[in-house]
Specification:
heterodimer; A: 475 residues; mainly alpha; Serine Threonine Protein Phosphatase 5, Tetratricopeptide repeat; two-stranded antiparallel ribbon; 2 strands; 49% helix; globular; B: 1032 residues; mainly beta; Immunoglobulin-like; Ferric Hydroxamate Uptake Protein, Chain A, domain 1; 22-stranded antiparallel beta barrel; 7 helices
């Protein structure tokens, strides 16, 4: 009996020790962090950016500016799916900019040894805002990303946003210039683009600044001082080699232009067992053929075949389709190529903003662009274009003109969603028409605002028609 | 201490020897003259006494002149002066009505008449009329105030019970399940997505074995669950398992064996006039489309390239679905005596489902034993071990080629040609483009869950002095849940093979320490109890997803090119202190006060203590006013008021960065981390709230219980209203702030309704007939949401519907309707195509049913009993993506009408804008391109209106007929009971507005807050079989 009583009392006593308040202090998730090292957050930003950009914007809008003859769920007819606009907006603002702002704030608080991180964050921020305004026009910028101060951000005009991007680039370059000589934060592991080479980031900042000023200049060159600023920018270093995110080509690091084929259509674009392949739009194919452009053979399986009608997929045997060399697993996600800067230089020389030889700049740009596809590119397989053929092609293009520069800008931006769309809208070259049966009168000019933002933010402006030109088009 | 007691006892004996003492013996019998074991024989004025043995005999030492008191539950107590006798036989007669006793919170038994809130009790026998493999489903139609949602016909599928409506927008709407005083897990987690290929597997409470259940109490309102505090804000279900009972012939052995056959409950009304294909042309390679040519015996090439006569293969789904079989076998050994009791039971459940390759095998071993060590110490020990193996769970939803929906069964496909499905080299044999051989997905792709569960409890009750008990109850629930999902190399859309290993370990530890005291002074009885509770729950998950398998059927990470491992961990703990005071005046007025204080780990440290009171009262006015008579024999009024809270989920307070394993893109084209060798961390998308408060529920309840004709007819009516404030919701905020949501306390959910139960023993002679009606209503209102609507967590089902809480409304479906003319309400037709058009997203009806009812009739004549239950729901909506698919593909008979003629959508209207503000309207006269075009474009632009139906239904739920062999036959056999029976469950759909499918289906599964959506759910089944019960 005594034993039983002792057991009972002991049991009670043992468990009474669990009644301390400390046992309730367990509300910390052991598998998550409360602050983030830039080397951990930046890889997420870079990978998520490319993943979403290539799939949502890349595979879906590639026929808006008529590289592809047709693609799935495209907005080229003027109607934007709520997922296309909603996903892009959500990822850009919450996944990418939201993280970058935290990295930037942490770096600013850490002092000048984190200038490099702060600069990288600003450059990526500017780049993303550039894309946001390129897609939607007026977007939240000055009041964005501060839910405490601005719970319902107001939308800024495109001019404000683009000027803000230029300012961000200038601030980033200033930070880089003010870096101490030693003791800088090592972000080489988290930097998936440049592996920590801050000089290349400065080049990229300057180049994005030029790209942005080209849009501002289109509207009011003199008032905005755009041309003076361009002239200054061209005296500083710009991108000298391709800027891209590398894809290893494994099943979980595959470029989406190819992955969409592999998952849904068949082993490759030239061998689609489950559906029709992707092919060039008539505008693209005819233009390449008209100039005997060597890129035709690199991009297209059989450029002598006619292109499918715009708005339809090619038949695969009687119509031209894209080659497997182009749409392949390890094709990188390109941010910037030096050829874009060269072509801008040529344009500005022709317009008298810069001094120099427009023809040389033009030819440099075209040569780089063609060579890039013919060999510079990571993982290229196939026959490179010989130097003689490139020279012949360039000679064939003749004397530089604004029209030719604009045409080459369109080709130079191949497979790069926002850049291609911007150049077509800014220059009006080539002259493109919307597909048959479209609800709009010109090619698509913008996306609708996403339903979630409209629902949560009463300051969202009413949706303009999707063929309303952008401010930078100056129409 | 012990020596003092010993000394005192010896002294007493010494002294007592001086007093004239003698021994009295005798036999206590009942009405029929049978000896009554366990009768208390007590010397009046003392606590000294004995109990009668198994034959009713007793022996007691008494002094002269004492009075003995004989007492036994259910019988009138007898006081007998012994006088000078040495042998006293006593006959006990049952004159008083047994006071119904129910089990309430904290495993306290109370008399029903003194309870001030509504409480339902379901007996174990009601659960075994036609056994369900998920005990939650067995509650359907049997009790008021609950809605039971079955998810699908998957063996081992989940089932959800919601008590008195939805009270938490955060999704904490599942009641607390308590088994023998121990709270257990009722989690239902999915591997992968709840909508893309959802493999619905059972919820935690499904392992409770109906054969081991003595009774279940459903505690509905906050007053009932007040002692459980925040964990039971959505109600509680208290399960009491069977214990050993005193049995004259020694241990009682009961054997129960059931064999049942399962078949498809409802099949769509398929058309067999037109072949598979599109544009009125036969095409053997097209899937999910039956708009091919008319079937006329023409020669065509089938999907294997053979030339055959085109003919309809009617009901070809029968060549795919199998007849299911279920075996349930149970053996239980139980015994008891004055010192203790035990019951040991083993049950095996083996079920093959109608879906080929699907099965559930469950073994339950349980032991419930109690020991009465002495007058002041009692121990009870219980342990259950349940091992479940689920194989071949069917996939539901969309975006997964393992899903077999009704649109797989094209009218002209001969399913026998799909066998064999694999060749000697392990390749899939299939000639359908873009889809897998259905037998391949069933037999080559693994969908397995192995679940081991142990629930153990140890209760010790100390009675140091009379009327005081101290109880210590420790419970432990341990669960290891291991899942494997594979796509064999060669499965289309996973050609290189994939596998997912998902392992969970869940542990729950619970300790209750309760002291209770009861006393009586004059007409007033007082019971008081105070208790302390500690509960901790921990879940650990480890998942491995791999693809690109080097060797088919070798599911190991080292043989896979891509491996993504993830981990998850949640631990929460709760401490509570509670008290209850029960005051009773005479026998007819009771006042109960309770209070509980909870401290939760998931709330902020400086603000984690909350106090929840309740008051309830019961007034038996027939006794008080003495107006009871033979006609109106019992009348009781009851009322209660209670406050309780509902706590936040774990880790909701901190700002977190999560290691991501995937950088996702559109169409599932994702990049994985590590990417280029680096990890990626992503900030949370929900701004946490450091000052989060628990949800606060205030509920009131009034009711009455009325009895007529001395209990032959009784009615129980309740009205309740519960207001749930400070809902913890993730409010959507503009994404341009960098975040998508903010956790906040906002919104109020008000639920109210009535519950009516009506019992009538209509005939009570040789032929007995009892009828029971349950009727419950429920109304849910959402207020103060702060935005127009919010999506319930986990309740988004593809682009066409979301289940939302609407401010100023209820829980509703948000979807896209047809563009309708404001004047006539008819759909506006596009004159250039003849088709309907899409309108703006709008709210398309409330999903929660407003009425649930059940009607049971029990008839018996001599040894035969018949029990029939019909139940139904009124109100609520269901979106059926399966019906949408059937229409879209031309599978059902309504799509075969007028296929080859001109088709004009007669319901439509054409509206022309005259440009001057007026409109011209005319009936639609624009034909569509073809009848097929009409059906195919009904869901264009994500319109979902046509596939949302009223979810009202009436079902013949179960019939059970059993025959108990009479004693005359049994006396020659070694058995005390032999019972044979025939049973059937889910027998017929008597009324439904949903065409082609079972209206009771839920895509999301029991662990989600959402329901009202069905998409390719595994079809539910009807089952019937036989049952044999032997007791010896």
């Amino acid at each position: 009996m005594k034993t039983l009583l002792s057991i009972f009392l002991a049991t009670i006593l043992a468990f009474s020790f669990t009644s301390c308040d400390r046992t309730l202090d367990i509300n910390e998730d052991p598998l998550a962090a409360t602050s983030a090292n830039p080397n951990a957050v930046l890889p997420f930003v870079f990978a998520e950016y490319s993943a979403r950009k290539t799939t949502e914007l890349g595979t879906r809008t590639c026929d808006v500016y008529q590289y592809y003859s047709n693609t799935f769920n495209s907005p080229k007819g003027g109607s934007i799916s709520s997922f296309l606009t909603g996903n892009t907006w959500a990822v850009w603002y919450t996944n990418l900019l939201g993280n970058l702002v935290l990295v930037e704030q942490d770096a600013a608080a850490a002092g000048e040894t984190s200038n490099n991180i702060q600069a990288v964050a600003k450059i990526m921020k500017g780049h993303l805002f550039f894309e946001l305004t390129s897609i939607w026009g007026d977007v939240p910028f000055t009041e964005a990303l501060d839910g405490v101060e601005y719970p319902t951000p107001n939308f800024d005009s495109q001019e404000t946003v683009l000027e803000g991007v230029v300012t961000l680039m200038d601030e980033a370059m200033d930070l880089i210039d003010a870096m101490p000589s030693t003791g800088n934060f090592d972000f080489s592991s988290g930097d998936l683009i440049f592996n920590g080479d801050i000089n290349r980031w400065r080049e990229l900042a300057n180049s994005i600044k030029i790209r942005t000023l080209m849009l501002i200049r289109n509207v009011n060159a003199s008032e905005s001082n755009a041309e003076t600023r361009l002239a200054t920018a061209f005296t500083e270093a710009t991108v000298s080699s391709p800027v891209f995110l590398k894809y290893e080509g494994t099943s979980t690091a595959t470029n989406a232009y190819f992955d969409i084929i592999k998952q849904f259509l068949g082993p490759s674009n030239e061998d689609p067992s489950n559906g029709l392949p992707f092919g060039p739009a008539p505008a693209l194919l005819n233009f390449l053929n008209a100039n005997n452009d060597p890129r035709a053979n690199l991009w297209i399986n059989n450029p002598s075949l006619p292109a499918a009608d715009y708005g339809t997929f090619p038949s695969g045997t009687t119509e031209a389709i894209f080659s497997d060399n182009l749409l392949r697993a390890d094709y990188p996600d390109i941010y910037f190529l030096p050829s874009e800067i060269d072509l801008y230089r040529a344009e500005l020389i022709l317009d008298g903003v810069l001094t120099g030889n427009a023809q040389t700049a033009f030819e440099d740009g075209v040569r780089y662009a063609v060579n890039y596809w013919g060999g510079n590119i990571d993982g290229f397989s196939g026959t490179a274009v010989s130097a003689t053929d490139v020279d012949a092609f360039i000679t064939g293009l003749g004397t530089v003109s604004l029209q030719k520069i604009h045409e080459q800008l369109w080709l130079e931006a191949f497979l790069r969603p926002v850049v291609a769309w911007n150049t077509v809208r800014r220059t009006g070259t080539p002259a493109l028409s919307p597909p048959p049966g479209a609800a709009i009168t010109t090619i698509l000019k913008r996306f609708d605002y996403p339903p979630d933002e409209v629902a949560a933010n009463p300051n969202t402006p009413a949706n303009p028609d999707t063929d309303t030109p952008m401010w930078f088009e100056d129409l | 201490m012990k020596r003092i007691i010993l000394l005192a006892t010896l002294s007493f004996f010494a002294i007592s020897c001086l007093i004239a003492q003698r021994t009295v013996t005798g036999k206590v019998t009942d009405d029929s003259g049978e000896g009554l074991p366990g009768v208390n024989v007590v010397i009046k004025g003392t606590t000294t006494g004995v109990t009668t043995d198994l034959d009713g005999n007793y022996r007691i030492s008494v002094e002269d002149g004492t009075t003995l008191i004989f007492s036994y539950v259910g019988f009138e107590s007898q006081k007998i002066e012994i006088g000078s006798r040495t042998s006293i036989d006593v006959g006990m007669s049952g004159a008083i009505e047994l006071q119904e006793v129910v089990v309430t919170a904290a495993a306290i038994e109370r008399e029903k008449r003194s309870i001030g809130y509504g409480i339902s009790q379901v007996d174990g026998e009601e659960l075994t009329v036609a056994r369900e493999t998920n005990i939650v489903s067995a509650l359907q139609g049997k009790t008021t105030g609950v809605i039971v949602n079955n998810s699908s016909g998957n063996p081992g599928g989940s089932s959800q019970v919601i008590i008195r409506g939805i009270t938490s927008l955060a999704g904490n709407n599942n009641p607390l399940w308590v088994v023998d005083g121990i709270p257990i897990f009722n989690d239902q987690t999915v591997t992968g997505s709840r909508i893309s290929g959802n493999r619905d597997t059972f919820n935690g409470a499904a392992v409770i074995n109906p054969d081991d259940v003595e009774s279940m109490s459903i505690l509905k309102g906050a007053a009932a669950t007040a002692l459980y505090g925040s964990r039971a804000a959505a109600g509680a279900i208290i399960v009491t398992t069977k214990k050993g009972k005193i049995n004259k012939g020694g241990p009682q052995v009961a054997v129960n064996s059931t064999f049942r056959v399962d078949e498809l409950f409802r099949v769509p009304d398929m058309q067999y006039e037109f072949a598979g294909g599109a544009f009125a042309k036969y095409d053997s390679s097209v899937v999910a489309n039956a708009f091919g040519s008319r079937i006329n015996g023409q020669l065509v090439n089938n999907h294997l390239g053979e030339q055959v006569e085109l003919k309809a293969h009617k009901k070809n789904y029968k060549d795919f679905y199998e007849t299911g079989k279920t075996f349930i076998n149970n053996i239980a050994i139980a015994d008891a005596n004055e010192r203790g009791d035990y019951r040991f039971s083993v049950t095996s459940l083996n079920q093959d489902g109608v879906l080929p390759g699907a099965s559930l095998d469950r073994l339950t071993v349980s032991m419930n034993a109690g020991v009465k060590h002495n007058d002041w110490l009692n121990t009870r020990f219980g342990i259950q071990y349940i091992s479940s193996d689920v194989e071949g769970t069917g996939a539901q939803g969309a975006n997964d080629l393992n899903i077999i929906g009704w649109t797989t069964f094209t009218p002209t496909t001969d399913f026998n040609l799909f066998k064999p499905w694999i060749d000697e080299s392990g390749n899939q044999i299939n000639n359908i483009v873009g889809s897998n051989n259905p037998f391949w997905t069933r037999f080559e792709n693994i969908n397995r869950r192995e679940d081991d569960r142990m629930i153990a409890s140890l209760t010790q009750v100390v009675t140091p002095v009379e009327n005081v008990n101290i109880t210590s109850r420790i419970g432990y629930d341990y669960n290891v849940d291991r899942r494997l999902l594979t796509n064999r190399v060669g499965t289309i859309t996973a050609l290189t093979g994939t596998f997912t290993v998902d392992n969970f370990i869940r542990e729950q530890f619970n300790w209750d320490l309760i002291a209770d005291y009861s006393t009586k002074f004059g007409d007033i009885s007082l019971s008081a109890l105070g208790g302390y509770n500690f509960n901790s729950r921990e879940t650990r998950q480890e998942t491995l997803e791999a693809s690109d398998l080097a060797i088919p059927e070798l599911f190991t990470p080292s043989a896979s090119q891509t491996v993504v491992p993830t981990r998850d961990f949640v631990k929460v703990a709760l401490q509570g202190a509670y008290a209850q005071i029960d005051l009773r005046y005479k026998n007819w007025l009771t006042l109960t006060l309770t209070g509980r204080n909870d401290w939760a780990s998931t709330l902020p440290e400086n603000n984690r203590s909350y106090f929840y009171p309740s008051v309830s009262t019961a007034f038996v006015f027939t006794d008080a006013l003495n107006i009871g008579n033979d006609i109106f024999s019992f009348g009781k009024l009851r009322a209660s008021w209670a406050e309780v809270g509902n706590f936040a989920n774990a880790y909701a307070l901190n700002f977190r960065f999560f290691p991501e394993s995937v950088a996702d893109g559109q169409y599932g084209l994702d990049l994985n981390f590590p990417f280029l060798g680096q990890l990626g961390f992503n900030k949370t998308n929900i701004i946490p709230n450091q000052a989060l408060l628990p949800e606060e529920q205030t509920s009131i309840e009034v009711g009455t219980e009325l009895g007529f004709f001395n209990g032959r007819l009784s009615a129980d009516l309740t009205y309740f209203k519960s207001s749930n404030k400070n809902q913890i919701i993730n409010q959507p905020i503009p994404e341009s702030t960098g975040f998508g949501f903010r956790t906040a306390n906002a919104a109020e959910l008000v639920t109210s309704g009535i519950e009516l139960r009506f019992d009538a023993q209509i005939l009570n002679g040789d032929f007995k007939w009892k009828t029971i009606v349950n009727y419950s209503t429920n109304d849910i209102k959402v207020k103060d949401l702060g935005s127009e609507f919010t999506v319930l967590p986990g309740a988004s089902a593809f682009n066409s519907v979301q289940i939302v809480a609407r401010d100023g409304g209820s829980l509703e479906i948000l979807g896209i309707p047809y563009l309708r003319d404001s004047l006539s309400g008819r759909p506006i037709i596009d004159p250039s195509t003849g088709r309907r058009q899409a309108g703006e997203a709008t709210f398309l009806g409330e999903i929660f049913p407003s009425v649930a009812w059940g009607w049971t009739n029990q008839l018996s004549y001599k040894g035969i009993t018949l029990s029939v239950t019909v139940d139904g729901k009124i109100g609520g909506k269901i979106k059926s993506a399966s019906v949408e698919g059937l229409w879209d593909g031309g599978f059902t008979s309504e799509t075969a009408i007028n296929r080859q003629g001109t088709f004009i959508d007669r319901e439509g209207i054409i509206v022309i804008d005259n440009g001057d503000g007026t409109f011209t309207r005319r009936d639609n006269d624009v034909p569509v391109r073809s009848t097929a075009d009409f059906w195919e474009t009904l869901s264009n632009n994500s319109v979902t209106e046509h596939s949302i139906f009223d979810a009202d239904f009436i079902k013949l739920r179960e019939i059970g007929i059993s025959y108990s062999f009479p004693k005359s036959i049994l006396s020659n056999l070694p058995f005390t009971t032999v019972q044979v029976g025939v049973e059937g469950r889910n027998l017929a759909l008597l009324y439904s507005k949903v065409p082609h499918i079972d209206p009771e289906a839920n895509l999301f599964g029991a662990g989600s807050a959402g329901f009202g959506v069905e998409r390719n759910n595994v079809p539910s089944t009807r089952s019937y079989g036989v049952n044999l019960r032997l007791v010896f």
